[in-house]
Amino acid sequence: MPACSDEGSPLQGPKCTWGQTTSALLSLQLGWGLWLFPAAYARLGWIPGIGITLLMALTSVYSGTLFTRLYMAVPEAVLLGDIGKAARGEVGRTLVYCVIYSLDATRCIILQLAATQSLSHALGAAAPAMWQCGLVVVLLAGLLSQVRALSRLSSFFLLGTVSQLAAIGIVLYEMLRSPSPDAATQLAGDSSEHGTFHEGFVAAFSIIFAFGGQFAFCELLADMKAPLLFPRAISVCTVIMAPLYILVGATGYWSRGNSVTDIVIFSLGESLQARIAAGLILIQALSQYLVNLNVWSHNLLVLTARTYRKAAAATAGSSPDAKPGPGSAVGSALAQSANARSAAEHQPLHWLAASGFVVAYSYAVSNMIPYFSCMVGIVSSSTYLVCAYTLPCWFAVKLLHGSMARAEVVLDYALLGLSLPLSLLGLSSSVTSLVRNLGCKNCRFEPWALQAVFLMWLFVMLNVIGFRYKRVAKQQLNRQCWMPLLEKSRNSSGSSSSTNLVSS
């Protein structure tokens, strides 16, 4: 039985049209990942850089179609974990919790850092310390996030997309107007001091990060009036994004060559045009932050409500005569969020607590690790491919097997086999790059050590999943063993009582 078969939430929020969903997708994906493309092309070269971009555009459209079909196969799903449980039981749902929601949590940290750096660069020499700029972003995000319905934020998302397009125009003009005379480019690879194996993998996952919005696809589908139109929204979004990514990446690489090492806008200095562009990017960073904050806060409340409801049901079963305590009213209000299909269906105070918690820890962690591209590489390598391809393909070959052509089944199994080792290599390279940025350039930090750590983490996760699976299987076995005995005892007691009545 699917996980969300309970009665629905009494609150009903406004749903999004496919155009509003497209606006939210553009805010989600056409964000700060765009400005990493010149550096990614500089590490990879022309052919690998453009090739990976086109490949990710095609697979992004396919993943949008696949998510839609999975959602329609489990129409009562609220979270991706519900689809995972319908396809693979408790193991599938636990894997989603380990991967998707860790991505939700860390992406908010990245976007907090992105908005903070945008604000600092826009203010130029007058900018306060980074932690103070971060507090301004916390205030803005905390206030705007209280508008819970994504449909009511669509105008701000559109403003963010327009601001991003204007910033792209300014940056392209500046790079075309004053190219570096020493700019060197290559068809493949990087001959500079940054052209290492690790940096190449970090660059590839920077491109993957720019296309990675799959972690929010299920929530966006649940928030639509017509979920079947979601493939149209993701196709329009990809058709807009992919040419812009190639345009910015190719222009930046041609203009600056191998010298581009991070976010391209920071290579323009502190001219008036660069500061205006940074201010425009700040608006886009905030809109992207709001989409992620909305999705993750919604997930947190649903998961918390389900945990509370399960604990309350267990308590009620063990002591049916217990009277409700003083916190029962709050608990029952929280339990209503268990099947909320969108952020608008949550209670305002609960939403304030969840969104405030997310903003607070995002601010704290972003001040501890202020390396944007390395954080992008770590997060995208450890979760993005698994989220976008491994888990959906694994669920699809179970739920959609009867409606899939043989070629698509082969494609899904190929994506399953490729995504995991690529994630392992990308994680190894990203952590190595982060350690070097933290000042350990002469440290002995071999990739095999990182892979061993990752395998240990994977071993622990598999044991956790196996423990939960065994516990559920044991409960089902006990139920199968004891239910016939209980039925038999009830029947025997019923027959004995009827015999006593007849004799009396």
From TrEMBL:
- Cellular localization per UniProt: Membrane
Q: Name one GO cellular component term.
A: membrane
Q: How does it sit in the membrane?
A: Multi-pass membrane protein
The regions listed as transmembrane in this protein's record are: 40-62, 121-144, 156-173, 201-222, 234-254, 274-291, 349-369, 375-397, 409-428, 448-469
Please list the residue ranges annotated as the Amino acid transporter transmembrane domain.
Answer: 16-409
Keywords annotated in UniProt: Amino-acid transport, Membrane, Transmembrane, Transmembrane helix, Transport
Q: Which InterPro entries match?
A: AA_transpt_TM
Q: Which GO terms describe its molecular function?
A: L-amino acid transmembrane transporter activity
Q: What is this protein called?
A: Amino acid transporter transmembrane domain-containing protein
The organism's taxonomic lineage, starting at the top:
Eukaryota, Viridiplantae, Chlorophyta, core chlorophytes, Chlorophyceae
